[in-house]
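Hi L.,

You mentioned the student needs an example of a multi-chain input paired with its predicted structure. This one should do, with 225 residues in total across all chains.
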Amino acid sequence: VQLVESGGGLVQPGKSLKLSCSASGFTFSSYDMHWIRQAPGKGLDWVAYISSSSGTVYADAVKGRFTISRDNTKSTLYLQLNSLKSEDTAIYYCARSVTTDYWGQGVMVTVSS
Amino acid sequence: DVVLTQTPPTLSATIGQSVSISCRSSQSLLDSDGDTYLNWLLQRPGHSPQLLIYSVSNLESGVPNRFSGSGSETDFTLQISGVGAEDLGVYYCMQATHAPLTFGSGTKLEIK
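Structure written out for the whole complex:
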């Protein structure tokens, strides 16, 4: 099982970014997935969830700004980040299944002018 | 949201010492399906978190059996029986019974 995030970087407040999580080593379409973030020096903070049937749930802090999606044909999970704020600065991890049994290495998103 | 309170926030141990970490939930984590979705994760310095124990007491594949978990409803414990040098890092409890998924604030294990 491997999860590899990409798409992070430095972005100005109010701008957008799209993160990807490429999955391999398992049947991606069969698994629920999460995005979880970690601000510098802080703990873990759940962001969004997508079920295997593409039902979605969001943390209040990102609702209306972030969108989680998946492309089962590409075994890829996405997170569209819009209207970014400085408090969104964090490492973003994708994680497999309801119990987060596998995590990616993470991708850094820095929101700063 | 479910609040998970972890104690202690930091722990200092010698190699071979046994230690335990507590995680208390603001509400019962017993799900209607009979399972209790309380997991323990370890984040080693500079790495992403890894699952150690799921559903209170089930050891994830590949995790040494010096790790064990116990508890029920709102009170849970992670025990390490004989700390090894590779066990340093931050331990998190996590619940997946109630949406949204929530994490404890972490316990940093240092090796003396």
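You could point out the following to them. Chain B touches chain A at residues 37, 39, 41, 43, 47-51, 54-55, 60, 92, 94, 96, 99-106 (CB under 8 Å). Chain B has a mean pLDDT of 96.

Best wishes,
N.
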